[in-house]
Design goal:
23 strands, about 350 residues, conserved putative lor/sdh protein from methanococcus maripaludis s2 fold, alpha+beta, elongated, Elongation Factor Tu (Ef-tu), domain 3, 6-stranded antiparallel β-sheet
């Protein structure tokens, strides 16, 4: 539950017609946050490599181009693959013809053997020839499938929708299996990778939540986190991977981010952030005492907290106590303090 800052108007002696808005310094229970650096990554990222031999014939996309799943990225020359397919088709037809011949011969030998006109060895040989012909058909069909696959490899398609980030080849370049062609990733699903020290890994596992923030972009809260089951031997840190439930504008792979992990709760002394003033190297507030007198007091502040759409607060580390009142409008309080001293 969010507790909103309490503030009120009080009258300063000698200035009753011009009340001063103040807020009470309060102690509240706030989450204990561990902040660390994170790296934004694409869940789907890959470098496509050639799976057949050929020369680059056409390239349809380049760096920074957006592609849809199944789009043709580039084509190879396919004369070798077309010739291989023609050979495989011819080999299959030959194997089928020999199978038909072997079946007919086996049927004839069976008929003759039934009339006891040939030896058993002749029947065995025809059976073996038939089985061999069947196996040759299977081998020919496998060669045909491979030839068709090799022909398909001359057309490279996008495995998923995304954006091209690097092109490794040019038109006319000859490639062989394993040659990198294009690198790309999908912006539809991102994740953040970071590391946490072993002292808080148990708390990270328990709370199972992290907030990822980049500059002024809208932060993302992830409850789908994976804590690696081992620590780095050098740093003793555990790697944490957080899947982002959404991708706000401004989030891109490779960007530097901040990860905020809730590791527990503790009481904190809070006051409105707008009450703080900075005078040279001094951080201070205007304090209103029980008699309504305005005072200028140096303070030491810590983390800030956003109270939803309400008042932003800061933690007071030193200089104030719970129950004291601070001016919400420092400029006005400064004027009153100057007038108060002049009386």
């Amino acid at each position: 539950m969010v507790v909103l800052p309490v503030w009120m108007l009080i009258s300063v002696p000698g200035f009753a017609a011009d009340p001063l808005a103040v807020a009470t310094v309060e102690q509240r229970v706030k989450p204990d946050i561990f902040v660390t650096d994170a790296l934004i990554e694409a869940v789907h990222q890959a470098t496509l490599a050639a799976e057949t031999t050929g020369r680059i014939k056409q390239i349809f996309f380049d760096v920074d181009d957006v592609v849809a799943q199944g789009d043709v990225l580039l084509r190879f020359t396919d004369k070798e693959q077309q010739a291989g397919l023609a050979r495989a088709e011819a080999g299959q037809k030959e194997a089928l013809a020999r199978l038909v011949q072997a079946q007919a011969e086996h049927t004839r030998i069976q008929s003759v053997f039934a009339r006891k006109l040939v030896a058993k060895s002749a029947l065995d040989k025809s059976s073996a020839d038939l089985k061999a012909a069947e196996q040759r058909v299977k081998a020919a069909e496998a060669d045909l499938r491979e030839a068709r696959q090799q022909l398909e490899y001359t057309v490279v398609r996008a495995p998923y929708a995304g954006i091209v980030v690097k092109r490794h080849v040019s038109v006319g370049e000859r490639v062989r299996p394993g040659t990198p062609l294009m690198t790309g990733f999908s912006l539809a699903k991102l994740r953040a990778t970071t590391s946490v020290p072993q002292s808080i890994v148990a708390a990270v596992r328990q709370h199972g939540e992290v907030r990822i923030s980049i500059d002024h972009a809208e932060p993302v809260i992830s409850q789908d986190i994976t804590v690696y089951p081992y620590a780095d031997a050098a740093s003793h840190n555990f790697t944490v991977r957080a899947e982002l439930s959404s991708v706000p504008a401004g989030f891109y792979p490779g960007m530097f981010a901040k990860a905020y992990f809730v590791t527990g709760e503790k009481p904190r002394l809070l006051m409105p952030a707008r009450a703080v003033v900075h005078r040279s190297e001094v951080t201070a507030v205007y304090v209103i005492d029980a008699q309504g007198q305005v005072g200028f007091r140096a303070v030491r502040i810590g983390r800030s907290f956003a109270e939803g759409e309400a008042e932003k607060t800061v933690e007071v580390l030193a200089g104030l106590e719970a129950g004291e009142q601070v001016a919400l409008f420092p400029v006005k309080a400064g004027v009153l303090l100057k007038a108060q001293r002049a009386r």
